């Protein structure tokens, strides 16, 4: 009887532990604030790769780091005000998650200039004490801080740091604390490499996160593994430069159960599997010939590297020879490379004897000294050949009934009657109903209903009647003409002219360089607009940066932390606002940090200009009826001008200001405090 009771108690205990662990896994939320600044102020040389390093880290943690893309905030060439505002937004988000009984892990990464006192944000600074305070006030359960900048070791309270060992070695359960990691000591330079096209430390950190640091071979990369790999490689390779050795440092104080897992290679959309017989120093380059992964591999140890779908080159260098191969990986595929798939440099061209090469061969010669390894989907049937093939012409009436399989590359012409899909397309794409490209698209796309391109695409011309979609790290260079809807998503780059009959929408870290035209609505969210936006009715911006010219037949509306530098013209109204609370800033208007972000622009509207809430407006407002700004430096011209805190001049029929440092000219002039009347139609004040 006692034995039976003890057995039941043990079973119940194990069930509770299992349910607790399962519930916890669902409750973890990860939030990242990633900052890249090439500009460190007038006295410092402009960096080349700080922004691209930040983009690369944001990409890898979104892919395999359990970070939802909407919780990864990427700031490029930012300033103090925007950075502080970003922390305030994230603080609200963390509070919201914690109110829903969710645990929160926060990652802050900075790549740019710094010294032994502060981060250099253009002409602004943020000292390390303030940075620590901002991070601490977030109240996240786990706080990870990574700085790739000169003298960043000054952030560490104890040089060299301390690390508290975990209780167990299985998985994170209830870990709390902080981890500060810096790329250099307090008296060292953090170097970037022209050869790597990246900073030493970030390059090896990302290599580690993609699998090179998986020392335990469990397909997971922990914080300690990633740091150990980045430390060893950074020190080794920087020692060979004129800048001297670079010593990364750490202060890791995490207490809890298990290791903190940063990336899970099992979640990669595609992977490179390096066989046991490959050994030596390995470099993997992308299609632009930039090194993205660098590691060392021993004979007998298999290795897994998480990669995006695309084209790559692998170089394996050891004491005996140097071998290489070109390869492609399609989304959802894993590629296994063995030693016999590689060819030595400067080898002679190889010809197969016979009509065809063996069906189970993994390599094909494209040109002299070049070998292409074709990706093939995992299949347990040993005799099945690779199915990632190339065709010059593709004809489809519906995807299951197209001439070639959807995994084929099209090199010349594709015609789609109802719907077709392919891996990569290079040439002309003609579609009656719709088409989808999973890989790269280069050429001309003409579609009657819809066109969808997914990954790393470069498209000189797109013409679509109804719906055009570009997503997931795409680059569109050239012209886009869409009758109804043009949708750009997830870190896309649009360069050129985009024309849409009704609706342009860009979301999630898109960069638009050029001109956007639409008859109805331009809508941008979390984007950078550099150029010209013209809308027949409305331009709507949310959490964006606009550098250039906005023109709307009726309204220009910008909300949240949108930053505008340039010119706004509206038929009726220009409106800018944020959800920030202005009650605190009214007490301390003289402190610049109270203005969470600013508008530097010329606003011209037929009816009204409004800059509301916690915005600081620098520039010129002109309207026929009403101008309003909460805080402003510049000039207002209109029938009615209203500013709570004004530095400058107001000219109008009725002028009203609570606190002013400047001049009012009008029929009725009101300054709430410290008014000095000059003439019946003019007031002067020097209030704050």
Protein described:
The protein has six helices and 47 strands. It has an eight-stranded parallel barrel. The longest helix has 26 residues, at 2-27. The radius of gyration is 29 Å and the shape is globular.
* CATH uppermost class of the domain at 28-265: Alpha Beta
- Portion of residues in beta strands equals over 45%
Q: What is the count of DSSP helices, taking H or I runs of 4+ residues? A: 6
Largest sheet: 8 strands, parallel, barrel
Rg is 29 Å
Low-confidence stretches: 17-26, 157-173, 347-388, 580-596
The structural class is mainly beta
| CATH topology-level name of the domain at 28-265 | Rossmann fold
The oligomeric status of these chains comes to single chain
Overall body shape: globular
CATH architecture of the domain at 28-265: 3-Layer(aba) Sandwich
Overall mean pLDDT: 76
What share of the residues lie within helices?
10-25%
**Distance between termini?**
84 Å
């Amino acid at each position: 009887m006692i034995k039976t009771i003890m057995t039941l108690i043990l079973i119940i205990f194990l069930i509770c532990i299992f349910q607790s662990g399962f519930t916890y896994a669902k409750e973890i939320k990860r939030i990242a604030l990633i900052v890249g600044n090439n500009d460190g102020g007038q006295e410092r040389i402009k960096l080349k790769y700080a922004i691209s390093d930040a983009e690369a880290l944001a990409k890898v943690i979104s892919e395999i780091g359990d970070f939802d893309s909407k919780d990864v905030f990427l700031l490029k060439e930012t300033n103090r005000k925007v950075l502080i505002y970003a922390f305030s937004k994230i603080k609200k988000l963390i509070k919201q998650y914690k109110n829903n009984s969710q645990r929160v892990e926060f990652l802050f990464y900075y790549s740019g200039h710094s010294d032994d006192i502060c981060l250099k944000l253009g002409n602004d600074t943020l000292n390390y004490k303030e940075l620590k305070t901002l991070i601490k006030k977030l109240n996240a359960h786990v706080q990870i801080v990574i700085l790739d900048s000169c003298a960043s070791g000054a952030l560490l309270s104890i040089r060299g740091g301390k690390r508290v060992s975990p209780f167990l070695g299985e998985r994170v359960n209830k870990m709390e604390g902080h981890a500060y990691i810096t790329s250099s000591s307090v008296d060292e330079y953090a170097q970037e490499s022209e050869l790597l096209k990246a900073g030493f430390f970030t390059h090896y950190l990302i290599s580690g996160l993609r699998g090179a640091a998986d020392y335990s071979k469990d397909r997971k990369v922990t914080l300690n593994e990633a740091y150990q790999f980045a430390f060893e490689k950074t020190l080794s390779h920087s020692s060979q430069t004129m800048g001297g050795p670079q010593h990364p440092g750490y202060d890791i104080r995490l207490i809890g159960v298990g290791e903190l897992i940063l990336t899970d290679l099992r979640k990669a959309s595609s992977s490179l599997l390096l066989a046991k017989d490959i050994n030596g120093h390995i470099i993997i380059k992308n299609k632009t010939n930039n090194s993205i992964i660098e590691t060392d591999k021993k004979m007998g140890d298999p290795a897994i590297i998480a990669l995006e779908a695309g084209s790559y080159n692998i170089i394996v260098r050891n004491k005996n020879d140097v071998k290489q191969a070109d390869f492609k990986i399609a989304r959802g595929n894993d590629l296994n490379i063995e030693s016999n798939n590689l060819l030595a440099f400067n080898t002679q061209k190889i010809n197969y004897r016979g009509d065809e090469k063996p069906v189970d061969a993994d390599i094909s010669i494209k040109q002299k000294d070049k070998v292409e390894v074709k990706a093939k989907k995992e299949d347990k049937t040993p005799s099945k050949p690779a199915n990632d093939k190339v065709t010059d012409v593709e004809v489809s009436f519906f995807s299951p009934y197209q001439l070639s399989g959807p995994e084929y590359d099209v090199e010349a012409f594709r015609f789609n009657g109802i719907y077709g899909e392919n891996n990569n397309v290079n040439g002309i794409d003609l579609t009656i109903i719709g088409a989808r490209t999973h890989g790269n698209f280069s050429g001309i796309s003409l579609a009657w209903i819809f066109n969808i391109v997914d990954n790393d695409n470069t498209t000189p011309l797109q013409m679509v009647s109804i719906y055009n979609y570009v997503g997931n790290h795409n680059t569109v260079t050239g012209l886009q003409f869409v009758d109804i809807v043009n949708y750009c998503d997830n870190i896309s780059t649009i360069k050129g002219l985009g024309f849409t009959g009704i609706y342009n929408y860009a979301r999630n870290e898109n960069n638009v360089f050029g001109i956007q035209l639409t008859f109805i609505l331009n809508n941008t969210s979390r984007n950078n607009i550099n150029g010209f936006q013209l809308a027949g009715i409305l331009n709507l911006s949310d959490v964006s940066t606009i550098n250039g010219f906005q023109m709307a037949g009726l309204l220009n509306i910008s909300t949240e932390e949108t930053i505008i530098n340039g010119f706004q013209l509206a038929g009726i109204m220009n409106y800018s606002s944020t959800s920030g609370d202005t009650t605190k800033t009214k007490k301390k208007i003289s402190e610049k940090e109270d203005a969470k972000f600013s508008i530097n622009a010329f606003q011209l509207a037929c009816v009204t200009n409004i800059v509301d809430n916690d915005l600081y407006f620098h520039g010129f407002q002109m309207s026929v009826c009403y101008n309003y700004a909460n805080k402003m430096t510049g000039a207002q011209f209109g029938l009615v001008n209203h500013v709570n805190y004004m530095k400058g001049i107001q000219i109008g029929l009725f002028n009203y200001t609570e606190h002013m440092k400047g001049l009012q000219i009008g029929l009725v002039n009101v300054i709430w405090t410290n008014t000095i009347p000059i003439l019946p139609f003019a007031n002067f004040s020097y209030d704050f």
